[in-house]
Each structure stands twice: as structure tokens, then as C-alpha cells.
Amino acid sequence: MGGRGSVRDAVVLITGASSGIGRATALAFAADGARLVLASRSGEALAEVERDCRARGGQVLVVPTDITDPAAVERLARLAVRRFGRIDVWVEGVAVGIAGPLGSESVDEIRRLVDTNVFGTVLCARAALATFRAQGDGILVVVGSLLSLLPNPMVPLYSMTKFAVRGLALNLQQAVAGHPRIRVCLVLPGPVDTPFFERAANHTGHQLRAIPPAYAPERLAAAILACARRPRRLVTTGVVAHLALVAHRVAPHTTESLVARWSAAFLTKPASAAPGPGSLFDPPPTGAVHGGHRRGRLRRRLGERLGIAQARRGERARVARDGNSRIR
Ligand SMILES: NC(=O)c1ccc[n+]([C@@H]2O[C@H](COP(=O)([O-])OP(=O)(O)OC[C@H]3O[C@@H](n4cnc5c(N)ncnc54)[C@H](OP(=O)(O)O)[C@@H]3O)[C@@H](O)[C@H]2O)c1
User: What InterPro entries does the annotation carry (predicted)?
Assistant: First the structure.
């Protein structure tokens, strides 16, 4: 595994498939004929995604799973292999957030955040790599964040967990270095227009929003699809995110300071909001791809179209390069 290929018929397991980037990724893989295993806590929200994926022609297995539960994650991997015989790509798209200065959150919220973003991600990585080792190939796509590298003092604990996720991915890339057919890709999105901001625990006193300029989730879905076709160690998308990564390499302290100020200032709207745990502990019954944070219908349509076009272009380039072979 780990070769260049089509995702048609590939078995793709996506955690966090009920919302945002994970949901957009499920739809993108379904449109390319992948066989999907969709996981998140809410069975109801997953049923919506299942319906939309089937409408695009994808085969789907839904496994409601809380990734903080070790037995549930083992069961997820087991059911995927039992149904489809293997897992070609495992996309880790789960995270929860807490917004507010350190000390505003409850201790239970800190535990839940670390449990989900770090412990849950580790459990998924263990299950994915165990499956890949047993079958001899596979691609793990870990979704980190620009906040895996850069600070935002308005979400200090979330950023801390994303640093940990990046650390895990870098270590796993070295751990699988002797297995050319097992690959670990790290995706570092900048701000993305998803429901994440309504779902986060919020202690800022104000409503949250995706920090501008937020990208369409379809752009990230296209980047993840590209990792499945042609694995890369580090992927981001969008001019701002690329610029931030380059600037951080050249002038780390100045970049950290600028990004911290910008992202803390623009994470909140003027409108006030009562403090609350968001969906840290309990999932909302329905989900969506978009968070509605990008202004202007034209801009929203363009971003989504661009993401879909990127996914299509990647497939055309692959066919021109490799012919029509399957992902393996
Ligand atoms: N949005 C951004 O601006 C942004 C920027 C950089 C990086 N990212 C990263 O991108 C990834 C996806 O974020 P997103 O914006 O798409 O967020 P999102 O819309 O809030 O989706 C998060 C997903 O995680 C699932 N989830 C939460 N807790 C879970 C648990 N314990 N077990 C299983 N599933 C759980 C949710 O479903 P249920 O509630 O049904 O469980 C949902 O499907 C995350 O890793 C995030 O850190 C996002």
C-alpha cells in the first residue's frame, strides 16, 4: 500500500464523518467510488451522511463510535475489516474545542478535550496501524491544524492538543519508515468554515466564528483525497496557510506573535454568548458540512467549486500518470 492510485473501491474509514471536514471528505470519496466506513458519536447525523454518500454511488458502513472508548475503536476497525476485508485509508477527522482564556473552562472540559483530541486520536492510530501491519499496507491521514505549530491564546488547550497530534504523526512517520507501503500523512488546515465553532465549548462571552479568511471544507476534502492517491508527509491548503508555514520557518517568533494576535482577535464576533460546553460531552443530533462563516454567496460557491474541481483534477492527473489501477 502507499502507492499512487485511484480511490475507486478503496476502503476508506473516516472518523468525525458527521460534520465539517470529515463530512465533506466522506462525500468526496463517495463521489470517487470509494467504499466508506463512517464513524462519529451521533448515529442520526451519520445516517444523513450515509444517505448523501449512497446518492453519490458509494457503499457505506456506518459505525457510531465514541473514539475515547478503546473497545469501541477496536470494534470500529473489526467491523470495517469484517464488512470490506481491509482498510486502505484511515482518516482521523475528530476534534473538539474549548475557547476562552486558560482557567475559564471546567476541569471536566479539559479532561474531555484531551480525552477526545489526544487519547482518542492515539487509539485510532493504534487500530489503524495494527490493521495496516496485518494487511501489509495502508494510509493514515491525521488531521492536525495550523495551531499544531502556531499558538492562539484564545484556544490554548485546543492548540496544545493539536501540537500533540502533530507530534504523534511525526513519530508515526518515523515508526513506519521501514514499511514503504504504510504511510502517515499530516494535514494542517488553516481556518475552515465548519460547524466546529458552534460545537466548541465557549467561555469567551461572545459567539465564535471561523477566523477569516476561512476556507471551504471541500478544499480540505480535496487535500485529503490527494493524500489517499499520492501520500505526502505534510499537506496544507490555501495561500494563507502556506504563507503562515513559510513565515514560521523564516521568522518563528514574529509569526507566532502575529498569528496569536490575529487569531485571538478574530475568533469571536461582537454578539454575546452564554458560557457552555458545546458538544464536548454530547453530540448534536444533526450535522452539516459548512458552518456559514464565509461572507458572500459568490465566495462560498467559489470555494466549494474549487474544492470539487481540485478533487476532479487530481483524479484526471492520476489517470494520465498511472492508468486506471486501484489504490493498491
Ligand atoms: N474548522 C477549522 O477551522 C479547523 C482548522 C484546523 C484544523 N481543524 C481540524 O479539522 C478536524 C475536523 O474539524 P471540523 O472543523 O470538521 O470539526 P467539526 O465540524 O466540529 O467535526 C468534528 C467531528 O468530530 C466528531 N466527534 C467529536 N467528538 C467525538 C468523539 N468523542 N468520538 C467520535 N467522534 C467525535 C463529531 O461528530 P459527533 O458529534 O457526532 O461525535 C464531528 O463529526 C479536526 O481535527 C480539527 O481540529 C479544523
Answer: KR_dom, NAD(P)-bd_dom_sf, Sc_DH/Rdtase_CS, SDR_fam
